[in-house]
Amino acid sequence: MRTLPVRLHPRQDLRGALASILADTGGGAAFVLQGIGSLSVARIRFAGKPEATELRGDLEILTLAGSLSSDGWHLHITVADAQGRVTGGHVAPGCIVRTTAEILLALLPENAFSREPDAESGCNELVIRPVAPPGGA
Q1: I need a labelling partner for 99 at 20 to 30 A (CA). Which of 69, 79, 129, 130 fits?
Q2: Would you give the DSSP letter of residue 46?
Q3: Are 118 and 124 in contact, with CB atoms under 8 Å apart?
Q4: PPC domain: which residues (predicted)?
């Protein structure tokens, strides 16, 4: 495992920026260990709901965690609004950084993640496969 601290800047799309960072590292598996910062737009999909809900305003990221791969994501976020109300759920595309997002990634070069149908859950779930080290088994 290799850790990678990153800082996202105003107006960056949270998921898009993380996708670019993962692609730039050449990795196929990573976890977001933690994230804090702020958003001007949060798009959050609540449990059991098919569509994301959009929140706008001065939003503080209280937590950000999940798994990343080139073919699927599972990110959860909690945010607080200017009145201190807390909302959380699945990160959807369109979360826009307001001032900063400080994120700690754990890159896992010895693994490959994919999302594949799971008969038991009925959803695409995480599948973890080992990756052979360069130059041998």
Answers
A1: 69
A2: P
A3: yes
A4: 1-129
